[in-house]
Amino acid sequence: MMIAGDPNMRSEDAARLRAVYGLDRPLLERYLAWAGQAVQGNFGYSRSYNQPVLAVLWPAPAQHIRLGRDRFHGGHRHRLPLGIWAASRPRSRVDYLINLFCFAGISTPPFWLALLLITLFAVALGWLPAGGMADVRPGTSELAALGDRLRFLALPVDHADPGPARRLHALMRGAMIEALRQDYVRTARAKGVPENRVLWSHAFANALAPVLTILALSFGGLFSGALITETMFAWPGMGKAIYQASWRTTTTSPWSGC
Q: Where are the alpha helices (DSSP H) in 40-92?
């Protein structure tokens, strides 16, 4: 970047710069030197942002965790009830409709789904912002601030990672159907136990064991798979920071052809 930004740079000056920053050393030696500094908390200086790397990255993890937490609650909270509802009415129109919606979500590429959400809710209807984060000004009431935050969170949270969330519905439905076929459920119904109690107190507790395993595994995926969501909706988290760092490195590299 420094060489490309100075048209009067001579080859001797370029070689001196590479020596100052250690770019003339072997790759393994350079990596070990960087790793040694990183362990001490020194991640270097970003020429793209003209700031220390830690200053650039410091706000991103908190927003990344916040979005992952909201995606986990918003993306999975209604999947379990949908799976239970579909299992209580197997092969009905409701069951077919829920399955169609969920399997369509599994098959939809995440970036295309994000474009559809932005086009529909931000451009066509104008109900929600296309991206970014709420800027709460001093003096704003708590209710208004909460409303602004929810408006900006609605599309990223709804986008989430459609595959794992909708697969969770299918797993919940299958586990509930299997549990409802058990003898203890037939015995409870024969005793006159209300259907809601049969579903939630008898079948749900036994069907939840395999679902909790998948739920725990998908928890980490929500945080690691946020790059597309944060990039498409301009959410200032780690995913967007990684994308911006890669894009800036590619477009400013002397080997990029730019």
A: 53-57, 59-76, 79-88
pTM of this prediction? 0.59
Element (H, E) at 174: helix 162-180
- Owner of token pair 């000004």: 137
| Structure token pair of residue 124 | 């066509």
Distance (Å, whole) CA 30 – CA 28: 5
In whole angstroms, give the CA distance from residue 224 to residue 246: 16
- What kind and span of H or E run contains 51? strand 51-52
Check residue 258 and report its DSSP letter.
-
pLDDT tens digits for range 138-168: 766 777 777 777 787 778 877 765 555 566 7
Instruction: Decide if 61 contacts 241 (C-beta within 8 A).
Output: no
Intervals of the chain under pLDDT 50 = 253-258
State the residue for tokens 């949270």: 157
Q: Which residues pair with 14 in a beta bridge?
A: none
Q: What is the pLDDT of residues 81-124, one digit of tens each?
A: 777 878 888 888 877 887 787 777 677 777 888 888 888 888 88
Under 8 Å between Cβ of 53 and 43: yes
